[in-house]
């Protein structure tokens, strides 16, 4: 996307997790505690691989989010211990999940200031995926909800999901810009529709969200190192 093309943009959509607030490090920390609980039974590398396998297997049933992660941890523990895990240890895993759900929302640096600048010129919407209750709770606790005219909480972010959002809200492709930290979920599906996207990397990304890029992909989006650079890029 060339800089002078930004004048056509009327609607800017933002991802939430690891774009507006911290998310993946909470999962990483919890997984490390989960490994400590299962340490008497199984090697951490085997546990890590099995947990990811079961998480992916369960996505079609539980979707994304903390609750599905908790259930996948419990299923992993039962499978790898051949059912020998104790009720006390299962409760420890459940408690890890409760801590995640109650974790304070840590808004990332420069986010609120950037939204403050952009809200007067653009229609801002939030497009995230995951558990409805958990995402609504995080939006409310973040204090950022009032910046957005619309909230979209999806079970999956793909081309069809974005196409439906644009159609439902009567947004022209050339007027739409998506901002997020995931190439797989926030950037490439939008670019494949002919819309524009800005990639703002986060320092850690869940392996399921990682993609292998080719040269064509690199021509379809802009990468910015920090969200604070977005207004300048848009000439605001």
Automatic annotation (TrEMBL):
Q: Give the top-rank taxon of the lineage listed in the UniProt record for this protein.
A: Bacteria
Q: Name one GO molecular function term.
A: hydrolase activity
Q: Which PANTHER family would you find in this protein's record?
A: HAD FAMILY HYDROLASE, HYDROLASE, HALOACID DELAHOGENASE-RELATED
A Pfam family annotated for this chain is Hydrolase
UniProt keyword terms in alphabetical order: Hydrolase
Please report the organism this UniProt entry assigns to the protein: Adhaeribacter radiodurans
Q: What is this protein called?
A: HAD family hydrolase
Among Gene3D superfamilies, the record links this protein to: HAD superfamily/HAD-like (3.40.50.1000), Putative phosphatase, domain 2 (1.10.150.240)
């Amino acid at each position: 996307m060339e800089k002078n093309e930004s004048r056509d943009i009327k609607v800017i959509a933002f991802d939430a997790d690891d774009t507006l607030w911290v998310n993946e490090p909470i999962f990483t920390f919890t997984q490390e505690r989960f490994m400590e609980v299962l340490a008497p039974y199984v090697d951490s590398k085997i546990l890590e691989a099995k947990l990811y396998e079961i998480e992916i297997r369960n996505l079609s049933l539980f979707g994304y989010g903390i609750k599905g992660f908790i259930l996948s941890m419990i299923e992993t523990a039962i499978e790898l211990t051949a059912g020998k895990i104790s009720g006390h240890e299962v409760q420890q895993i459940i408690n890890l999940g409760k801590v995640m759900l109650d974790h304070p929302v840590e808004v990332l640096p420069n986010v609120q200031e950037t939204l403050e600048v952009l809200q007067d010129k653009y229609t801002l919407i939030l497009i995230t995926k995951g558990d409805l209750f958990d995402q609504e709770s995080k939006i409310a606790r973040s204090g950022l909800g009032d910046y957005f005219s619309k909230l979209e909480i999806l079970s999956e972010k793909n081309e069809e999901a974005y196409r439906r959002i644009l159609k439902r809200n009567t947004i022209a492709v050339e007027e739409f810009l998506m901002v997020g930290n995931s190439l797989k979920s926030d950037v490439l599906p939008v670019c494949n529709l002919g819309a524009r996207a800005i990639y703002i990397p986060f320092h850690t990304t869940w392996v399921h969200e990682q993609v292998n890029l080719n040269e064509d992909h690199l021509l379809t989006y802009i990468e910015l190192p920090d969200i604070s650079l977005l207004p300048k890029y848009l000439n605001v």
